[in-house]
């Protein structure tokens, strides 16, 4: 049984609840344990994962957050730098699933954070990005174990 750390930037509570529910359901469906921590924003997620990884207590990580475009360049910085930080940690060998949604508006966030909208015959799988990130983290964890 693996131990997964969910790190969430809880800026939009109602949207984060959807992401978190999907991630938890995916982790529990595979029989793993999880903890959840909250950080101030998406930029802090990679740092929190790096700190937690140093403890050796976690096998994989799930990054959850929502960044909605505003009127300033700040959106680009947050979107790009949070993704860059997570990618750097992944390249260092951490198993991370990334569901930091970067969207234009709340309606897009609701579609992506909510229950999956596509079916087996529908390639338009927009929803349940929290669950998808958790499944990605578990897949990367298994791959890491395979190569160990």
Determine Rg (CA atoms, Å). Answer: 15 Å
Identify the strand order in the major beta sheet.
2-1-3-4
| Helix-and-strand structural type | alpha/beta
Care to count the β-strands?
Answer: 4
Describe this structure in a few short sentences.
By secondary structure, the protein is α/β, with parallel strands linked by helices. 49% of the residues lie in helices and 21% in strands.
Write the layout of secondary structure elements.
Layout: E1 3-9, H1 13-29, E2 33-39, H2 45-55, E3 60-68, H3 74-91, E4 96-103, H4 106-113, H5 129-147
Parallel strand pairs: 1-2, 1-3, 3-4
Question: What do these coordinates show?
Answer:
The protein has 148 residues and is α/β, with parallel strands linked by helices. Helix content is 49%, strand content 21%. The protein has five helices and four strands, in the order E-H-E-H-E-H-E-H-H. Strands 2-1-3-4 form a four-stranded parallel sheet, with helices on both faces. Helix 3 links the parallel strand 3 and strand 4. Helix 1 packs across helix 5 and helix 2 runs parallel beside helix 3. The longest helix is centred in the last third of the chain and has 19 residues. 38% of the residues are buried. The model has no long low-confidence stretch (mean pLDDT 93).
